Amino acid sequence: MLAKSNNERGQATIEFALALPLLVVFVMLIAQFAIVARQQLALWEVARDAARLASVSPNPQTAAQEIVAQNGFSTSAVVATHSDGITQVSLTFKENTSLPLLGPFIPSITLRAHVAMLTEP
């Protein structure tokens, strides 16, 4: 079996050094996507809980804001209404990119969730 020469080992090292930054950026983008997806799922869950409480409350806006505040989201982006036997809750949340180096290049993403439920008497 032939042994690799020093030139071949050096070439592999240089190829790895050139490919590593691209691999790191790719992994960071996947991580940022996972963070945004998790926030979207959390927003849908909070909207569903807020709509459930708002559907039995005489004041849906206050009830929805209470649930949203308990879950750590801003209450300023909550709209809850009763109309024709249907309670609707809409939430808006601005997700800032949180990974170093990529943050300035990826704009903030606005996440939205809308849930409608029958109003309970």
Summarize the structure in short:
This protein has 2 helices and 3 strands.
Quick check: average pLDDT? 87
**Count of discrete domains:** 1
User: Rg, please?
Assistant: 24 Å
Task: Tell me the series of helices and strands, N- to C-terminal.
Answer: HHEEE
Instruction: Tell me how many strands there are.
Output: 3
Strand order of the largest sheet: 1-2-3
Span of the ends, CA to CA: 83 Å
Describe the main β-sheet briefly. Answer: 3 strands, antiparallel
Helical run tally: 2
Spans of at least 5 consecutive residues whose pLDDT stays below 50 are none
Q: Which percent range describes the beta-strand content?
A: 15-25%
What share of the residues lie within helices? 40-55%
Which outline best applies? rod-shaped
Structural class by secondary-structure content: alpha+beta
Task: Explain this structure.
The protein contains two helices and three strands. The chain is α+β, with helices and mostly antiparallel strands. The protein has one domain (8-118). It has a three-stranded antiparallel beta sheet with strand order 1-2-3. Helix 1 (6-54) runs antiparallel to helix 2. The N and C termini lie far apart (83 Å).
Fold topology:
Blueprint: H1 6-54, H2 60-70, E1 78-83, E2 86-95, E3 109-118
Antiparallel strand pairs: 1-2, 2-3
Key traits:
121 residues; alpha+beta; three-stranded antiparallel beta sheet; 2 helices; 3 strands
